[in-house]
Write a structure and sequence with these properties.
There is one protein chain. The protein is α/β, with parallel strands linked by helices. The chain has three domains: 252 residues, Rossmann fold; 168 residues, Rossmann fold (3-Layer(aba) Sandwich); 92 residues, GMP Synthetase, Chain A, domain 3, CATH 3.30.300.30. Helices cover 29% and strands 22% of the residues. The protein has 17 helices and 25 strands. The strands form five sheets. A nine-stranded mixed sheet has the order 2-1-11-10-12-13-14-15-16. The longest helix is centred in the N-terminal third of the chain and has 17 residues. The radius of gyration is 24 Å and the shape is globular.
C-alpha cells in the first residue's frame, strides 16, 4: 500500500507521556474533561484493543443462545450467526480470497448483511460497503476504485450489476435473498419477494460468475478454514464518502479505528445491567458508518440484538414492526424522528422500555426533538461524527433531561480543535472548522495521497469541513457545513439556524435552506418546504421567520415541494435543491 495514503498516528504520545500542548496548556486545550460524566476516563487504552474478529468470536462464545439479529419476525442467534459467518469465510478462502483482498457488500438491512460482514472479516478480507441503490455508473466507479473482485449483493439489484459488468472485473457475484439465513421461514420470504418483484427487469450474468448465498454457505460448511492472522492496524473497511459533492473516495478504516470508537462509546454510555437483553432499532442502513458502528458493532460487543428495518421508507411497515417488537435503543437521523412522530399510528408503539436514543448523521432540529420528547418521554442525545472518524467524535451525556442543541463533548482520547482558514486555533465562542485527532480517525483516503494530505493539518488533525463553536464548558455546537454557508451582502448565513426556525412553524413538515445567486446581494436565502398545513403561504412563513431572524437571514424565496430529495440515510440533498437556482 502506498504509504502516502496513511495518516501516521504512531507519534502521538501515550497518556502518561503526553507532552505539553504547543498551542495551549492541558486544561485550556481540553476543557471538556472537567464536564465528563462520572466514571468516564479521559483516555482509552488503545494498545490493548483487539480486532473486530476478536469482538465477534468473544461475543459468539459468551452470548451463543442470545438473539443477535431480529428481522421479518424471525430471530438469528449468535450461535447461528457464528456458524454461517464461518461457513462463508471458508468459502471465500476456497475462492482464493487472501488477507487484505476487498469484498464489496451491496445489501440493505437483511440478516445476510451480518453474516457477510463477519464472514469477510474472519477470512481476513476488507469490506467495501456499497449502497444497494447505486446506479451502474456509481457501482462501476466504486468497484474499480476499490479493486473488489467479489460482490455480495441482494438479488433484487441484479440488473444494476448486469449493467455494470461490461466495465468491471469480478471473480464472483454472490446473490442474496432477503430471507437468507433465517431457515425455512427465510425461504418463504424469498419466494414472496421474488413474486412481488416480477416487475424488475430480467437480468443475465455470465455462466459460472454468480452463486446463491445459500449455496456458498453450504459449500463452505464442508471446507476447512484457515485462521486469518488479522492485526488491529489491518484495514477492515473501505467506507466511501463524498459522493454527494463529487467523486466518492474511500476512508480507510482499520480494525483499531472501529474498535477504538466502540470502546469510546461503551465507556461513555455503558450499560445499566449487562445481563438484561438490549435491542437496538436499526432503521439506518448498515452500510452507513453511523449504523455500522453505533447499532451493529456496539451491540454485538455487549450481546445485544439489532432489530433490522430492511426498508425504512416503508413507514407503515416500520411502525408495524416497532409496535410488535420490544426495543430498548434507537439510533436515528432527524428525518427518521420526524417521520415517526408524524405517523398516524405511532400511538401503537410502546416507547416505555427505551433506555436512550441517539441522533446524528445530520443536525437534529429542536422542534423535532421537542415533539419526540413529548411523544416518547425520551430526550434525543445528539452526537457528531463522520465516515473518516469511524464515526463518533462528540456526543452529549447519556443522562441529559432536555435536548441541548449541541453535539456534546469529545469522547475519551479524542481531541477537538476549532481553527480558522489558516489552521490556527480560534478562541472559545468564535466559529471555525472542526479539526479532530484521535484513535478513531481513519488511516487516510484509499489511493488518494493528495486528498489525504489536504484533509490533515500539519500537527495531525483531520479537517472535517464543518463549522462549530466551542462553549465555555467544553461542549461544541455545530454552525454548519462550510460548503453550505450562504454569503448575503457579506454576512454569513448558516442554513441550520434558519431551518431550525422554520421547522418550528406548525405548518411545516420539513424544510431545507440553501443559497442561490442574487444580483443585489451576491447570494440570497431560499427555503424549500414540505407543508403540513396546505394553507401555509410563502408570505406567512416569511413573516414568521422575521420574528426570530435578522433581515438578511429571512428567506427571500419559499419553494413548496411534495417531498425533499434525500440520501438513503435520510439526509436532505441541499446540492440538488441549489441546482434549482430560483430567480431573484
Amino acid at each position: 500500500m502506498d504509504q502516502a495514503n496513511v495518516i501516521d498516528h504512531g507519534a502521538r504520545p501515550v497518556p502518561s507521556e503526553r507532552q505539553p500542548d504547543p498551542l495551549n496548556n492541558q486544561a485550556a486545550a481540553h476543557p471538556w474533561l472537567a464536564s465528563y460524566p462520572p466514571g468516564v476516563p479521559a483516555e482509552i487504552d488503545v494498545a490493548r484493543l483487539g480486532t473486530l474478529v476478536d469482538l465477534f468470536e468473544t461475543s459468539a462464545t459468551a452470548f451463543a443462545g442470545r438473539p443477535a439479529i431480529l428481522c421479518f419476525g424471525s430471530t438469528m442467534t449468535y450461535a447461528t450467526l457464528s456458524q454461517q459467518a464461518r461457513d462463508l469465510a471458508a468459502w471465500l478462502q476456497a475462492e482464493g480470497l487472501a488477507k487484505g483482498d476487498r469484498v464489496a457488500v451491496m445489501l440493505p438491512n437483511v440478516p445476510a448483511y451480518a453474516v457477510a460482514i463477519f464472514g469477510v472479516l474472519l477470512a481476513g478480507g476488507t469490506i467495501v460497503n456499497t449502497n444497494p441503490l447505486y446506479t451502474p455508473r456509481e457501482l462501476t466507479h466504486q468497484l474499480n476504485d476499490s479493486g473488489a473482485r467479489i460482490l455480495i449483493v441482494l438479488e433484487n439489484f441484479g440488473p444494476t450489476v448486469a449493467g455494470a459488468l461490461p466495465d468491471i472485473a469480478l471473480d464472483r457475484v454472490v446473490l442474496v435473498g432477503p430471507g437468507d439465513g433465517l431457515g425455512l421461514k427465510g425461504r418463504v420470504i424469498n419466494l414472496a419477494s421474488r413474486h412481488v418483484r416480477k416487475a424488475v427487469p430480467p437480468f443475465r450474468l455470465p455462466e459460472g460468475l454468480a452463486v446463491p448465498f445459500a449455496a456458498a454457505l453450504n459449500r463452505g460448511r464442508a471446507l476447512p478454514r484457515a485462521r486469518a492472522k488479522v492485526d488491529p492496524e489491518d484495514l477492515a473497511f473501505l467506507q466511501y464518502t463524498g459522493g454527494t459533492t463529487g467523486i466518492a473516495k474511500a476512508a480507510m478504516l482499520s480494525h483499531r479505528n472501529i474498535m477504538a470508537n466502540v470502546e469510546q462509546a461503551q465507556l461513555w454510555f455503558g450499560s445499566k445491567d449487562p445481563s438484561v437483553a438490549r435491542c437496538c432499532v436499526t432503521a439506518l442502513p448498515l452500510y452507513h458508518i453511523f449504523a455500522l458502528t453505533a447499532c451493529f458493532f456496539q451491540f454485538m460487543r455487549s450481546g445485544g440484538s439489532c432489530l433490522l428495518i430492511p426498508n425504512p421508507r416503508d413507514c407503515d411497515g416500520m411502525v408495524k414492526t416497532l409496535s410488535r417488537t420490544p426495543f430498548t435503543h434507537l439510533m436515528g437521523v432527524n428525518t427518521l424522528f420526524n417521520v415517526l412522530i408524524n405517523h398516524p399510528k405511532i400511538g401503537t408503539v410502546d416507547f416505555s422500555k427505551l433506555d436512550f436514543v441517539v441522533g446524528g448523521g445530520t443536525a437534529v432540529q429542536r422542534a423535532v426533538a421537542e415533539r419526540w420528547k413529548a411523544l416518547t418521554g425520551n430526550t434525543i442525545i445528539e452526537g457528531y461524527g463522520l465516515s473518516e472518524t469511524s464515526p463518533v467524535v462528540c456526543v452529549n451525556p447519556r443522562g441529559i433531561r432536555e435536548f441541548s442543541g449541541t453535539i456534546g463533548f469529545p469522547l475519551p482520547s479524542t481531541e477537538v480543535s476549532i481553527r480558522d482558514a489558516s489552521g490556527e486555533p480560534v478562541p472559545a465562542g468564535e466559529p471555525g472548522e472542526i479539526c479532530v485527532r484521535g484513535p478513531q480517525v481513519m488511516r487516510g483516503y484509499w489511493n488518494r495521497p493528495d486528498e489525504t494530505a489536504r484533509a490533515m493539518t500539519a500537527d495531525g488533525f483531520f479537517r472535517t469541513g464543518d463549522i462549530a463553536i466551542r462553549l465555555p464548558d467544553g461542549q461544541f455546537k455545530i454552525v454548519d457545513r462550510m460548503k453550505d454557508m450562504i454569503l448575503v451582502s457579506g454576512f454569513n448565513v448558516y442554513p441550520n439556524e434558519v431551518e431550525d426556525v422554520l421547522a418550528a412553524h406548525p405548518g411545516v413538515l420539513e424544510c431545507a435552506v440553501v443559497g442561490a445567486p442574487s444580483p443585489e446581494t451576491g447570494e440570497m436565502v431560499v427555503a424549500h418546504v414540505v407543508r403540513k398545513d396546505p394553507s401555509l403561504t410563502p408570505d406567512t412563513l416569511r413573516a414568521y421567520a422575521r420574528t426570530q431572524l435578522t433581515g438578511y437571514k429571512v428567506p427571500r424565496n419559499v419553494v413548496f415541494h411534495e417531498t425533499l430529495p434525500k440520501t438513503n440515510v435520510g439526509k436532505v440533498l441541499r446540492r440538488m435543491l441549489r441546482d434549482e437556482m430560483p430567480e431573484a
